[in-house]
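Sample A.
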Amino acid sequence: MAREAVVKKKTADHGSIAGVPSATIETIMIEPRTILSDLFQAALAAADPAKVLPGFLPSPPKGRTVVVGAGKAAASMARAVEEHWVGPLEGLVVTRYGHAVPCDRIEVVEAAHPVPDAAGREAARRILELATDLGPDDLLLCLISGGGSALLALPAEGLTLEDKQAISKELLRSGADISEMNCLRKHLSSIKGGRLAAAAYPAQVVSLLISDVPGDDPATIASGPTVPDPTSLADARAVLDKYGITPPPAIANHLKKETSESPKPGDERLSLSTIEMISAPQASLEAAADVARAAGITPMILGDAIEGEAREVAKVMAGIALQVARHGQPAPAPCVLLSGGETTVTVRGKGRGGRNAEFLLALAVALEGHAGIYAFAGDTDGIDGTEDNAGALLFPDSIARAETKSVSAKAKLADNDGYGFFESVGDLVITRPTLTNVNDFRAILILPA
């Protein structure tokens, strides 16, 4: 594979005759693997709770300060609060297994994601109890990040954890997007969809959010436990109908009862709840763009909220990359296409791999080894789906190298086995949990061939 590219760019020579600039040649050395890694690290740094959270902390209340939270960044957010809070502090946060960090005053519990388990159910029950115990002089400080929906697994009255697990598995395989999944989750919960803030009333509720959803909608992040829910029971039933999912009888009955509806905008119990978005995908894309410019590469941010089937999004991205490579439009090489959001995968095969590996493998098939095009795609939480990798790297010769090992890119894609493909060529990217989460990060680097 190409380890380094020599890029020659024309620059103005202000010492030219008669004041007319002449062109000189500036040589830039670009090592694709290094620059793609640097872009990802910049994206992660822009979402690091230790850096972004302290400036959003509220003033201490007259009474108690109780910290609760859920998500893949919940533990690192809790540690940032402890390091900068003045005064008494107590609380509990729940994060994904392997994402805990040491805290002194805030208890950290680990639970399962993306399919909830009993540990998440118990943590959610205790968080709801902490909120219910507060009075008008108290503060409930909520630390919310992506993954909180599965981690706050407190079924509504009459439902069981097994009911929610069954629905979660069906939704994950269906190709439903995050908004659709969270709509259903909110209507099957005792804590999501504004119910946590309602339970804390009349205490002050301040929520600090790290967005992992397209559009940064607070009502969608972790299913909005402190945010009024604009969706309805009818919307939740429509999600099941759209994907042909037959729910357990208890869930079907629950979704028909008016008493199962979530708190709506204008509900007085949520009038003391305020939201602060402390980090979002766009900020991470902009940080990566700055690194690209410093390296002499033109960045193009295509969007921070790109959704759709991973393999279909890959086809579109491949078309843009080829336009740059062949025609120098909409920007000449060296150029990097940056994007975020959350694609989906409709699982039909039996392979391994999350949506980022699927995206990259589909991109490889669409590019057919075109010279000078490299890519990275990964989840900013460090876990692509349920595997141990954050994502993977794609090189112009990836398909050719796989073929020497009798691995077919098209066959692996048909089997949803992006992990297996990139493992075969040694290009998985393994970071371990990053302790933050602003959704997926994609970078397609186009160099002069």
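Sample B, a different protein:
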Amino acid sequence: MEKYNKTVGNFGEEMATKYIEKQHYKILDRNFNTRLGELDIVALNKDCLCFIEVKTRTTDKYGKPMDAVNYVKRNHLINAAKIYITKNKLINYKARFDIVEVFVKKDDNNFEVEKINLIKNAFMC
């Protein structure tokens, strides 16, 4: 099951990256790892530094994908973002946290995107 979830997640991140590029985001980094957690995508949108969490689901049986970004997850993202900002000397940028929900279905052995939902300013620091 873990390998399947990783495969679905990787597919979702690829699709989310393509989607936000079409929304005029400039990708700066992907899968930035810290001891406090991982940032899926770091991008610029106009003059704003965006930390983007991607949640991919094949079903809404357990709720919306954005619901998985709970209090604990948000704190990990905020702390990882602080490390990213410091490490890359980006202190002068405004920053925000976005979530991209990717809904997929499995067709034979391939995944197909049903819908992508971008939630800007999904939560605050």
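Observation for Sample B: DSSP finds two helices and five strands in the chain.
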